[in-house]
């Protein structure tokens, strides 16, 4: 039932696959595609038994790799130009893939099939291209935020996540529900607190398909918040058109690339610090603490009554420390409970038919938008 209202693969697909007679390599064939030597086209087998199509854009100067999960009603033929432009302007390698039942991928789309699809793409990056987990950025657009966050919860050393017009969950796109039901799909609201790496959220304030409140609440639930990008007036399908889109992505990738290893995934080691948006420039070297040895020696030289006072102070400090740890534990427990119950008001959808009309537009964008934004950036 949920899949019928969640997935709208382009019909017919925007591309076909041909074998290059000279090289024997696979190529995407379309009237609007310009073949590039730095693009590999692959067929990958998933654990569900499907064969999906993926494309890998190579950038010889890149140190990071983006694994991109596209939106609904799109395939990699339509995303081809955006993928190649992002690879060039962000200075990254980029892998995009079609979900089962999309483009020339076999099978039928479902929530769990998309999880198997992204796992196959990730495995290809590791085994075929030698990409390490800590050098990967997961990018999820709209419905693609589902498989991206699912994989992110299983990768403790992941470098970063980008959520582009993401959804809280499938049902929450239609109705402002306050709790998660077992039959809901893409329960991102419950998964985002489990992601330990920095997360960038991008959303348009006038999104007519996935309300702006989805992106805002997901950002608020992040452990490692990066400065979000709320594009004023942006809708669901035109964010790439804004010059700020590419500028902010460049800033994010540059910051993540420079982040020292010991500062990555900091929230995985500590939950005591207040949550603040990640700002790489503010990570200064730790300043040495002033010495207090002479004061300590003076205290130790005092008589029996002073020693007794110090012992009393130690007990008081121990009790205070215990109280702080207990408050921290209770705070973390409350966060866990809040994760399952909190939800900002969203605009209710009156019918499943209206959802179908809206979801058909998810993930579609003007393939020339990124080039225009890059020229203005």
From TrEMBL:
Domain named Serine aminopeptidase S33 is located at 64-171
Region labeled Disordered — which residues? 282-354
Q: Name the Pfam families on file.
A: Hydrolase_4
Q: Which InterPro entries match?
A: AB_hydrolase_fold, Hydrolase_4
Basic and acidic residues: bias regions: 282-336, 344-354
**Gene3D superfamilies for this protein:** alpha/beta hydrolase (3.40.50.1820)
Protein name listed in UniProt: Serine aminopeptidase S33 domain-containing protein
User: Which organism does this sequence originate in?
Assistant: Dovyalis caffra
